[in-house]
Specification:
Elements lengths: L7 E4 L3 E7 L16 E7 L1 H11 L4 E4 L1 E3 L2 H12 L2 E2 L4 E3 L6 E7 L2 E7 L13 H4 L4 E5 L5 H16 L3 E5 L20 E2 L3 H8 L4 H10 L3 E2 L1 E2 L5 E5 L2 E5 L18 H14 L4 H14 L13 H5 L1
Parallel strand pairs: 1-4, 1-10, 2-8, 4-6, 5-7, 10-11, 11-12, 12-13
Antiparallel strand pairs: 2-3, 8-9, 14-15, 15-16
Family: Belongs to the carbohydrate kinase PfkB family.
InterPro entries: Carboh/pur_kinase_PfkB_CS (IPR002173), PfkB_dom (IPR011611), Ribo/fructo_kinase (IPR002139), Ribokinase-like (IPR029056)
Keywords: Kinase, Transferase
Length: 311
């Protein structure tokens, strides 16, 4: 491959997250006020968190996406820049609202409420061809939240691969529950990065080992995030599982917040692959990145350095 300016180009979502911890399972309406443990305003969006995690691990990272010309959009772009991510290609849409997510966290479980704003108008056409040609790896996030982008992913990945880049995809959740539209995409995706529930849904089966085989048969390499159980992939036709470290290894205070842990996992896996690490070690690094990111509230505050993730 020719010299590239960026190790990683992330195409996808970026928005503020309002994280409310200690939220009741059923908030009381009727203008009732309920006191909670904490509230945090942090950078969110699967794509943005992955981009920040990769930059923290030492990669040269660019982000392409879409925000509105509002205070939320300014917050997002400033947060990405401060973490070393190039946002010169990010579209700022006049008169539009930036996506906004409210996360109601109850222990390690959470409900996620997203107002998509201009997110649904993100498209593959927002990615300048010159930027695509300067990236060694292209990662797309939140496939089902960005229908126009989803339509253009096959063309985007073909162009990336034609230029010698590798590709990865994190579909994240499908609010519709249909899990469609991946038939043309998966053979163009070097690494698919679902969590366990997403992997089972995309594969249409109930057993994880069978799911990774099924997804691999569709032309991609699945790397499945299994939370406290670590991660699973497939090597030479057989599933390979890497366990997660004990919860205490997240830090002295243990797990504080799991928001964005899967996106930090994505960053760790991409960084390990870019450094040429073998499969098992790449998974170990990715699991460590996801685990260490839970040391603080939000997806980016506790993302590890390369030294922390590999020590």
């Amino acid at each position: 491959m020719a010299f590239t300016d960026f190790d990683l180009l992330v195409v996808g979502d970026a928005n503020p997250d309002v994280i409310v911890s200690g939220a009741p399972r059923r908030p009381a309406f009727g203008q009732r006020e309920h006191l909670v443990d904490t509230g945090d305003l942090v950078l969110g969006g699967s794509g943005a968190i992955t981009a920040c995690g990769a930059a923290r691990l030492g990669l040269r990272v660019a982000f392409a996406g879409r925000v509105g010309d509002d205070p939320a959009g300014a917050f997002v772009l400033d947060a990405l820049r401060r973490r070393g991510v190039d946002v010169s290609a990010c579209v700022v849409e006049p008169g539009a609202a930036t996506a906004l997510t409210v996360i109601l966290a109850d222990g390690q479980d959470r409900a996620i409420l997203t107002a998509p704003g201009c997110l649904g108008r993100t498209s593959a056409g927002d990615v300048p061809p010159g930027l695509l040609a300067r990236a060694a790896h292209v990662h797309v996030s939140s496939f089902y939240l960005q229908p126009l982008l989803a339509e253009g992913v096959p063309e985007l990945f073909r162009a990336a691969r034609a230029g010698g880049a590798t590709t990865s995809l994190d579909t994240n959740d499908d609010p519709s529950g249909r899990w469609e539209g991946l038939g043309e995409v998966l053979p163009l995706t070097d690494v698919l990065l679902p969590n366990e529930r997403e992997a089972l849904a995309v594969a249409g089966v109930e057993d994880l080992g069978r799911a990774v085989r099924e997804l691999a048969a569709r032309g991609t390499t699945p790397v499945v995030k299994c939370g406290a159980e670590g991660a699973m992939t497939i090597v030479d036709g057989e599933p390979l599982r890497v366990p997660a470290p004990p919860a205490k290894d997240a830090g002295e205070g243990g797990v504080v917040d799991t928001v964005g842990a899967g996106d930090s996992f994505d960053a760790g896996l991409i960084a390990a692959r870019r450094r040429g690490l073998p499969v098992r070690r790449s998974l170990e690094v990715a699991v460590a990145c996801g685990t260490l990111s839970t040391r603080a509230a939000g997806g980016t505050a506790a993302q590890p350095t390369w030294e922390e993730a590999t020590s």
